[in-house]
Amino acid sequence: MATSVFALEPLWLALLLQALAALLLFLIGAVVVGYLEHKVLAHMQDRLGPMEAIWHGIGQLPADGLKFLQKEDIIPTAADRWVFALAPAVAVVPGVVVIAVLPFGPGLWLTDLDAGIFFALAASGVTVLGTLMAGWSSANKFSLMGGLRGAAQLISYELPLVLAAAAIVIQAGTLSLPGIVEAQHGFTLFGVPMIYGIPHIIGLGLFFVAALAELSRPPFDMPIADSELIAGHMTEYTGMRYAFFMLSEYAGMVILSALATVLFLGGWYPWPGVGLPEGAAGMVLGFVITFAKILVLSAIMVWLRATFPRMREDQLQRLSWSVLIPLGLLNIVLVATAKVWF
Amino acid sequence: MSVPEVVMLATGVVGGAAALLVVTSRNVVHSALYLVVALLAVAGVFLVLGAEFVAWAQVLVYVGAVVVLLLFGLMLTRAPIGPTGQGNELGKAMPLAVALAVFAGLVALIVTSYGGEVIALEHVPPAALGEVLYVAWALPFMTLGFLLTLALIGAVVIARREEGEGPLPEPDPDEPEAAEASPPDSSSWPQRQPEPTPDEREVSA
Amino acid sequence: MSETLPHEGGVILPGGPGEAMSVEIRDGGLVTQEMNLNIGPQHPATHGVLRVVIDLDGEVIVRARPVIGYMHRGFEKLAEARDYRQIIALVNRHDWLSAFCNELGVALAVERLMELEVPERAQWIRVLMSEWNRILNHLMFIGSFGLELGAITPVFFSFREREDIQSFLESATGGRLHFTYTRVGGLKEDLPAGFLDASRQMAATMRSRNDEYRQLLLGNEIFQARTKGVGALAPDVAVDYGVTGPTLHATGVAEDVRLSEPYCVYDELDVKVPVRTNGDSYDRFVVLLDRIDASLDLIEQVHEGLPAGPVNRKMPKTVKAPEGATYVRTENPLGQGGYYLVSDGGKTPWRMRMRTPSFSNIQMVPELLEGSLLSDMIAILGSVYFVVGDVDR
Amino acid sequence: MPTVRSSETSPPATRLAPEAIAALLAERLPEAVTATTVAHGQLTVDVVPEHLPRAAALCKREKALAMDFFDMMAGVDAGEDGFHVVTRLYSTRHRHAVLLRALAEGGREAPRLPSLTGVYRGANWHEREAYDMYGIVFDGHPGLEPRILTVENFEGWPLRKDFLLTTREIKPWPGEKVPKAKEEPAKADAGGEPADDGPSEEEKAAAKKAKAERAKQKAAEMRAKKRAQREAEAGGAQGSPGEAAPEAGGEGRGGGGDEPGKGEGA
Description:
The complex is a heterotetramer. By secondary structure, chain A is mainly alpha-helical. Chain A contains eleven helices and two strands. Chain A has one domain. In chain A, a hairpin with a 2-residue loop joins strand 1 and strand 2. In chain B, helix 1 packs antiparallel against helix 2 and helix 2 runs antiparallel to helix 3. Chain B is built from eight helices and no strands. Among the domains of chain B are: 82 residues, NADH-ubiquinone/plastoquinone oxidoreductase chain 6, subunit NuoJ (Four Helix Bundle (Hemerythrin (Met), subunit A)); 37 residues. The radius of gyration of chain B is 24 Å and the shape is globular. In chain C, 45% of the residues lie in helices and 16% in strands. Chain C has 14 helices and 13 strands. Chain C has two domains: 66 residues, no CATH class; 318 residues, Cytochrome-c3 Hydrogenase, chain B (Orthogonal Bundle). The longest helix of chain C is centred in the middle third of the chain and has 30 residues.
């Protein structure tokens, strides 16, 4: 198995480079997916989307970022200042941290943790704290309702997400993300090399639905439901702090798509059994393949946004507890049985 | 001092300070947020000790689920911004005594078990942990799991009974507060929220 | 302080700004305090400045009280200070989505008081314009209803059609929203060349597009889950409140002015009124879609039967309605519009009461809201079709 | 789709002619019905105010009438007599309608009518609107306040003819299209086309002068009000500012609205 390109000496240089790379990947990923959402949504809705900033509006998101920087930072008088100010950071930091374990190509990861998948899920689960803090500290009833809905939703969808990932861990026999990719590379179904996504179609579905709910993306966007709760926990936020929430949403799309890519779609390999060239070429190719898979998954998320109305809070809970979680448990039993038998 | 020792000390201090703030903060939500810091510090301690899996489990379960549930409960029930009245009639002495007793007990336990022994810090891979849990301690582990499942089912059963099957406690009409809390007559249009009585104002002050 | 502990005797802490739904534990049971929430006057779901004060128990609405009047512009008073020509431009504006149907009502009222016979062609064109206006209006609500439920795409589609329709209506009337095309005794002027062709073409396009809307939303599982059985309105309640239009037709009552008291040339046309029986949000939405088809049928009948001739009568410079009173009903897109015109023989009305469908619809809304979920409120408010200007006048 | 077509639904045979409805009402409630008029095919029944709910209930419950649909309610300024309230009831089954007209008791000072909310739920807001616009009090209504369309602390009854449009009060109106009392229009109309010819120079000058005077008067009033308020506050709790304000405001409005149309019309 390849080692990380960041396994450098001395340690401080490696750490510095890792931190920089994580931040850069986080920003680039969020901006690219954000642009994707603008454009895909627009074309699905019979319009063009941003067209002015540079070529085909490609500079729209950086321009938005600049604009957000100039906006007045408003903290409501009744708000709990510290919690209000900290909430966007709490929403963003887990995203940056998770980037550290995501493999974007052969050797293209910052660090390979033994319990990588576990770490990624644990860290991304912390994001909900930001939502809760923002919802409570805004001193706004709509925000509070949004925070409550967000918390309820994230608690109930963390379970299917972890269950779906657990099935893959059983299949691959490792918790390490690069390890799962390599295990998948050698996986065959009745002699045919196969990505996990095909036999684990239930798991893939579970993971994708739960990821949508974790991200509060339509059709599970009740915490920010604009026609009910204005913007939920983000109602009182302006300028850069608001931009942080948006950033964490788009980065969340990247992260969960990347996880799904690793777990179900064969990571940086075009197809299990099909290798990549050695060295830098393989790295670049691997990165391109990984990113393409991430973008496809993100585009599907955007597609769902263009297609579906919003669900209702009780319907969402019912879906999780009476459909997804039993299905997730069943999936684990099936996978474990199959793993022992074959 | 070696690097791990410094980190250990730092996380320990942060965790201890946060834990102290949890109990001294006058604002319940702040307490819960300090609890997050304390739990993260504990995860840090686990990391320094090489127990990576336990550290992430701590984050996933305690920060991601338990505290979130706690905050959810707080917000759902009563979490006005600003300090709230201390609702603890046990005062401060009793909890302090309990905490000290637990601390003393744990210290005594550790000292008697490992007193003087030097344990080398080494990274425990999840595979090794799995080996221990599912091979050496498989029976106790499964018993524990069974017990927790039973507890979960029991909780669901109790909750369901309260919801529909059992009799709901009727609010006592003679109780003055009950009349106050009852919704104002809908025929008088529109309704403003009733002014807080002097008693209630006092609590908020 | 010790005697008012939160868990003793059920004293509820008065909340700060961030007060939540408070729960008290009393006698071993949970008693919740309701949260009072103002939806509006500025809120995305209220289509303008309407305020709904709701008391929430968790997510369940316990009480709902619509507060109106934020857009009250005193049109009834203004009408008393305007001559009839000016009133036609005025009534365009209270329900800005049904401009033509409104102005038609006033013209009909004055014509009835004057016992004026309007040229045949003008009457046919009035029907044509009314039906196009109806489609314009319904397109708006089809788009916005999806938007409120979180489906953001339909609104772009429906606005594409709205633009197209407005463009060719503009060629005849000069207006895109406020047409002011009617005059007492006829119309402003005849249709321009090419108008009928554009109208024919648009009718054909609209037919296929209407199926597109059906496919876009109706088959969607989530859409059905969000709307079926939500905010079901009983026919007797609807009639008691004076609810009309698509909201009434969804309950199974086929009361439509075009059937029961035909004006213009509706009695010569085959008017179809789509009716459904459940009265819930889903049915109200389906009725809206079906009404577009029904309106297209009427438009095609007008295309075929439109007679030649003048479009207005020679009228005196100042129109004076003779002394008397009359009540004229028209089937506006949102329901029955009514104009009670009292004239003292002058050139301004002595009194003109505007009976607007949205007013009655909103009055009925608490019946549907109470006991439903907060999210359902959006589905209900979005499907009890109203325009705030029409409520407040 | 289930549809109802006009070709399938001719007017029901049970539909009653206006005259028949009038006869039926007069027969069943002779003490309530004072007069019936049929104009433009519409029946208007004048009802004794106190019997209005009974008449409405009869219209709703009588099998042959079955007027289940509450259409609308309109207040109409009836000059010196006070205010009419016209209620339209309609039958969705028989497709006939009646306009019940009642003259509110109490003249212009304290118009009162019994409420129809017990008969039709839809009457609620219509009555609130009539109260808001004309000050007609409906006995038995669950809550006329706060005012439904105007702001809660609005003073005056906007649709009464003696209530001038505020713009006319602030800015003199050289034209004639001010809502006038009943006698006025005939006089004004004799002038031909007043809407089209603009105000003459003298009129403009006079209007300007009048405006300046009014502004002065208003400023003086405000000063007096403020002074009174300060004194009240300094003096203690006996006169709260909330009490002083409406009084002064009422005077101001009374000065502008007591004699409608006069001065402006000529």
